[in-house]
Automatic annotation (TrEMBL), chain A:
InterPro entries in the record: ELP6 (IPR018627), P-loop_NTPase (IPR027417)
Gene3D superfamilies in UniProt: P-loop containing nucleotide triphosphate hydrolases (3.40.50.300)
Name this protein carries in UniProt: Elongator complex protein 6
Family (UniProt): Belongs to the ELP6 family.
Pfam families: ELP6 (PF09807)
Source organism, top-level taxon: Eukaryota
Annotated metabolic or biological route of this protein: tRNA modification; 5-methoxycarbonylmethyl-2-thiouridine-tRNA biosynthesis
UniProtKB/TrEMBL annotation, chain B:
Swiss-Prot/TrEMBL keywords: Cytoplasm, Nucleus, tRNA processing
Organism: Felis catus (Cat)
Signal peptide region: none
Gene: ELP4
Protein name: Elongator complex protein 4
Cellular localisation: Cytoplasm; Nucleus
Primary subcellular site in the record, as a coarse category: cytoplasm
UniProt cross-references to Pfam families, sorted A to Z: PAXNEB
Role summary: Component of the elongator complex which is required for multiple tRNA modifications, including mcm5U (5-methoxycarbonylmethyl uridine), mcm5s2U (5-methoxycarbonylmethyl-2-thiouridine), and ncm5U (5-carbamoylmethyl uridine). The elongator complex catalyzes the formation of carboxymethyluridine in the wobble base at position 34 in tRNAs.
Length: 262, 475
């Protein structure tokens, strides 16, 4: 997806939180893109996949050019498969604390076991061989945690702890997907979305077209660069593209310039 | 083709048919094999499950929902391992019919059924399943109808509404024999008793099971949901749908049907109050999907979403389900008297289709779908009327457009103003859309009113070629 022509240099200042947001459409193609991008760039990735199964990501990843099974075997990828583990957690009591422990509890307070899992997964390997580049945490997606009983504050705390560890301590990046519920009054989701928007360095927002469904233009992507740590007087830079998803890639074009319309 | 065969039988990571690994789970999302239509020996192991077929797009195993028209809209069928959520219509008439079609399809194909309900005993539900339509005695009626339909319309070549001819026609295929993929059912007759007896089914009737003790730590799920999840998990584990016990006989699909999930009969109060136990249903759906993904099963859930008070839950439930179809029946609503809908019984909204193993997904191009329950068939058709809404990517919704009506002077429909202002705006946007698409505006030949910009070939030789009737300005 080099069609996303924005500066994607890893040598630049890392420690970024990228927020992926989708409204009225499915933004999972962004998750697939980031996963394949970071794996190709030789980063150590911890992927908390709560929505789909491993083989789904694997098959799409192969279309984009990475093999998740190989990455998992050689240790580059740590994969938490939410759907499969939830069944294990729910039906059988686990001996040691499981990252999805909150499924069993009536009033789970925080996501600490999940945070411990992430911290353990992205721990720098001491023996020094096969040094991966910066660690990356990828979460798909955070809105599911709200559906599973956690409050918005608990999820924000989780991201805060992860940022402290991954971004500040280990100079890595975090990418998280949140659904924007639009006009339905999902207050918890709005709290989560607003809170994360203020903390993030880069916001990618995939929206459906305002005029409804179209076969040739699947949606619109808004990119917003921010500097949350230094309040500056200059405005944040923003770009808008429309996109069409194809079998192995996504093509972007400026608004109104879809090849189908011209 | 030789390369394809080796890919299928080899131990490649995508081509492997059975999962390697310590627990020997069979996930239904593995690539079953090459998409070739030929019969490879490794490929035939999984295709040999009756009533399933691999999807054309991504090799995913599909089962029929019981309605071939709905299968077509969902991209071929319901994928094994996913959840189909039906948002019920107001009086639960048509959604329970779809539920029965789903179960009847399972019986015809020999799948194992798991029926869960809090309202009716599953045995009673099974007694009321519709009978399958056999080839011979219905086919000739159907062919007659199809012929009448075709001769009336397809011979007229459309001149003004020419875009209609480019649109895909909904398939109106006839009933098929039992070895094929989808079947048609006769809603007026009941399924013969011997077929029901011969099938394998498990029932979960909540009022019977609610008295037994609970052996799981209290989490925020309601009692009914916990029992149902345990029941489903037991069946999957004992009968080996998740690959844990190697099945001696052939692999089969488990069809799970859950009726009226979320209604107060299950002990859930989201339909009663706004601030009820808001996580119970969503947690249930999440764990259910986890169970389905790791086993050879497919699930249909009907849910009375029109009763749920907290709208946020509906959006969360939609995000947690794979395929969501909403039914809206016209009974009792003001649409019943609308002449547009006089042939139909309700509308079908396909709200969500999953993207499985793929970045893209099959989505049908038509969005205004209505259903009707004729004597024997449940058909879904495109509501053909709004002439200009096909250019929806340029025209904003919310405008009422020029409506097409039958039997007009032109032979295929006349244009009738809904309101003058709306039609004026519609034509103004038509003019603007031509600018976008053709990047040359029409030459200004008239008085400059937007009414005159009606089409690229309207003005040729300085004379109007086709009379737009009501739109022309008086000379």
């Amino acid at each position: 997806d080099q069609l996303l022509n924005r500066p994607r240099s890893l040598s630049g200042p890392s420690g970024k939180l990228t927020l992926l947001c989708d409204a009225n459409t499915d933004g999972s193609f962004l998750v697939h893109h980031f996963l394949s991008f970071y794996l190709k760039a030789n980063c150590k990735v911890c992927f908390v996949a709560l929505i789909q199964s491993f083989s789904h990501y694997n098959i799409v990843g192969q279309k984009l050019g990475v093999s998740l099974t190989v990455a998992r075997e050689c240790g580059q990828l740590v994969f938490l498969e939410g759907l499969k583990s939830s069944v294990d957690v729910f039906f059988r009591a686990q001996a040691e604390p499981h990252p999805l422990q909150f499924l069993r509890e009536a009033n789970a307070e925080n996501l600490q076991p999940l945070y411990e899992f992430v911290r353990e997964a992205l721990k720098p390997v001491d023996d020094g061989e096969a040094a991966w580049r910066c660690p990356v945490l990828l979460v798909d997606d955070l809105s599911v945690l709200l559906s599973l009983g956690m409050g918005a504050v608990a999820v924000l705390d989780f991201i805060h702890y992860c940022r402290a560890t991954v971004c500040w301590e280990r100079k890595g990046n975090i990418v998280a997907l949140v659904h924007d519920s639009g006009d339905t009054e999902d207050e918890e989701n709005n709290i989560l979305l607003n809170g994360l928007s203020h903390q993030s360095h880069l916001i990618l927002r995939a929206e459906g077209l305002a005029t409804g469904f179209c076969r040739d233009v699947h949606g619109q992507l808004r990119i917003l660069w921010r500097t949350p740590s230094q309040p500056t007087t200059q405005r944040d830079q923003s770009l808008t593209y429309q996109y069409k998803i194809q079998d192995k890639s996504v093509s972007f074009f400026a608004k109104g310039m879809s090849p189908a319309v011209l | 083709m030789a390369a394809v065969a080796t890919c299928g039988t080899g131990a490649g990571s995508t081509g492997s048919v059975v999962a390697a690994g310590s627990k020997n789970h069979v996930t239904s999302f593995q690539r079953r094999g090459p998409r070739a239509s030929g019969s490879d020996s490794s490929y035939s192991r999984l295709v040999s499950i009756a009533g399933t077929r691999p999807s054309v797009r991504n090799g995913q195993l599909l089962v029929s929902t019981g309605l071939p028209a709905l299968d077509q809209l969902l991209g071929g069928g319901l994928a094994v391992g996913t959840v189909l959520l039906i948002e019920e219509d107001k009086y639960n008439i048509y959604s329970s019919l779809l539920f029965k079609y789903f179960l009847a399809e399972g019986i015809i194909n020999g799948h194992t059924l798991l029926v869960a309900s809090a309202k009716e005993d599953p045995a009673d539900i099974l007694q009321e399943l519709p009978a399958p339509l056999l080839d011979d005695n219905f086919k000739k009626d159907f062919d007659e109808e199809a012929c009448n339909h075709k001769t009336a319309e397809s011979n007229i070549k459309m001149k003004i509404a020419w875009r209609y001819q480019l649109l895909p026609k909904m398939e109106q295929a006839g009933p098929v024999s039992s070895s094929r993929f989808g079947h048609y059912y006769d809603a007026s007759k009941k399924m013969p008793q011997e077929l029901i007896e011969a099938s394998k089914w498990h029932g979960f009737f909540f009022p019977e099971k609610s008295s037994s003790t609970l052996n799981i730590e209290p989490c925020s799920l309601t009692h009914g949901y916990i029992k149902l999840l345990q029941f489903i998990q037991n069946i999957i584990y004992e009968e080996g749908f998740d690959g844990s016990n190697p099945q001696k006989k052939q692999k089969n699909i488990l069809r799970i049907g859950i009726q009226n999930l979320g209604s107060p009969l299950w002990g859930d109060d989201i339909c009663c109050t706004e601030n009820g136990n808001s996580h119970s249903l969503t947690k249930f759906l999440y764990v259910l999907r986890g169970l389905l993904r790791t086993s050879l099963s497919a699930c249909m859930i009907t849910m009375p979403t029109h009763l749920i008070q907290n709208k946020a839950i509906i959006s969360r439930v939609t995000n947690l389900s794979d395929t969501v179809v909403g039914l809206e029946s016209f009974i009792g609503s003001e649409r019943e008297t609308n002449p547009l809908y006089k042939d139909y019984h309700g509308l079908i909204h396909i709200r969500q289709i999953p993207r499985l193993n793929n970045l893209i997904y099959d989505v049908s191009d038509v969005k205004d779908l209505a259903f009707k329950l004729k004597r024997k068939l449940f058909t879904i058709e495109w509501v053909q009327d709004n002439y200009l809404r096909q250019e929806r990517n340029i025209y904003p919704p919310g405008f009422s457009y020029l409506l097409k009506q039958k039997d007009s002077a032109w032979g295929e429909g006349s244009l009738q103003h809904s309101t003058f202002l709306m039609s004026f705006l519609a034509k103004a946007t038509a003019f603007a859309s031509r600018l976008v698409r053709h990047s040359e505006p029409l030459e200004q030949t008239g008085s400059g009113r937007a009414l005159q910009a009606a089409g690229p070939r309207l003005w040729r030789d300085g004379r109007r070629q086709e009379a737009p009737g009501l739109l022309v300005t008086p000379p």
